[in-house]
Amino acid sequence: MSVLVAENLNLTNKNKPSITNFSYNFLDNKIYAILGKSDSGKDVLLDLLSARTKPDEGNVYLDGELLLDNPKMSKRLCYISSKTSFPGHMSVRSICRLMSSYYPKWDNGYAYELLEYFKIKPKTLYFKLEPNEKELVHGIIALACRANITIFLNPLDDVDVKDRYDFYNFMYEHHIRYPRTIIISTDYIDELESIVGKILMLDKGRLIEDFTISEIKDNFRYLSGKTEVLKSLIAGVKIIGYEERNNYLTVCVGKKLTKDETRKYQKYLIKISEVPIQKIFIYLINLREKKGI
Fold it and tell me: pLDDT tens across 1-45, in order?
């Protein structure tokens, strides 16, 4: 079932296309990640998907109803962005109370459980929170509200790697307990690999690729070995990226290796390994730039 449907979204800012012909069905109970450079338009896309911005063309539907200017449906969606903020005089406890009055499925016990885990005191005033604590509070709100659609724009950028890891584990466990659709725009995709189901890659406002995690693992491989040996073995092979250091070559191939190909590379002592998702994204963008796309 499609919960959130984007239909032919277009938006131009300052005579420059920000989002072009974006259409996608975000399915129920799935976790999506959106990757893109700073100029890819991913922040604009999330503003459109959350009905914070009106497109020049196209529509966004939530369960078949237009999302824009629809207060009833807005309570079923939670959007946490870099602009998320609360009045400085409010305590964390007051913020939780406010959220409970807005979101019908708000889980106050869970919110306090996470606040305790991350050592954030409920009585603390918002303006006294450190940047990492504010981001954790925002993330806790996104989970505890249990909205049908939860959207994050670059969550936890100021949070250290240990707390990010723990938070994403909480997200995964909570998603299993209370399934819903989660959309995350992130620069730390490799940290999310174990919880994300599908990855969308955005470039210059256009959707260029979408993969499941299993498709990425099946269809991209690193081959590494002595430069002279490896070059002689990869003629005609689809190479999407390469790195060479001290006569040692590593190439990323964009295909599933057959058993015969695997045996051939192993015969010549070529190492075969998985490619980090972040690297695949970089290689694909570099290819587009070389082609002038």
Answer: 558 999 999 999 877 679 999 999 999 999 999 999 988 999 999
- Average pLDDT of span 91-117: 97
d(CA 106, CA 96): 9
Residue pair 154/171 in contact (Cβ under 8 Å)? The answer is: no
SS3 assignment, position 23? strand
Helix (H) or strand (E) holding 184: strand 181-185
DSSP conformational letter for 56: S
pLDDT(206) > 90:
yes
Q: Tokens standing for 5?
A: 């449907």
Q: Are strands 65-66 and 239-245 parallel, antiparallel or unpaired?
A: unpaired
Task: Extract the tokens encoding 222.
Answer: 């690193």
Backbone φ and ψ of 20, nearest 5°: -125, 120
Give the other-Cβ count within 10 Å of 290's Cβ.
8
User: What's the token pair of residue 106?
Assistant: 């708000």
d(C-alpha 212, C-alpha 218), whole Å? 10
